[in-house]
Amino acid sequence: MTAHVTEPIRCTWAGMSDPMYLAYHDKEWGRPLKGDDAVFERVSLEAFQSGLSWLTILRKRENFRAAFDGFSIAKVAAYTEEDVERLLGDAGIIRNRAKIEAAVANARAALDLPGGLSELVWRHADPDAPVPRTMADVPAVTPGSKALAKELKRHGFRFVGPTTAYALMQAIGLVNDHLEDCVARTW
């Protein structure tokens, strides 16, 4: 008799067959991520993702890291118009002027934050958010994401609306939106 091996249960959005997407779901998404440059990278990538598939961003992430000096806030904040033009010519990233200029402006805004970007973002953590049973239980916007977006905008950040802020909160573990039965729900 042959034993039946079943696949672990995952969030339905991770059911794609792309190994990069599956690895992102299993090993990164929803896990706590702190540190100013690390959080800046995710803020930037969430903004670049707006209107696109997250898989597109994952496939270009290493190119983004190279093009944006590892998302060093200090380095990106010092970018000039020549750097913006360089980035607009880089086929390895999303070449959208408004999003590129937003990343530079956001780096400059992050430099001025008392306590840093990571501290500001993590003030909006919601460890007591309800555990979603189905994807229908996962919100796109919450009062916390509205508050985070408002605070970031108050400090001069761009491309950080409530939906993007919630995607950031999910991605870096401010909320745990892995479904109730998902293998990645508990670490």
From TrEMBL:
Tell me any Pfam family this protein matches. Answer: Adenine_glyco
What Gene3D superfamilies would the database entry show? Hypothetical protein, domain 2
Q: What is this protein called?
A: DNA-3-methyladenine glycosylase I
Natural source organism = Nonomuraea salmonea
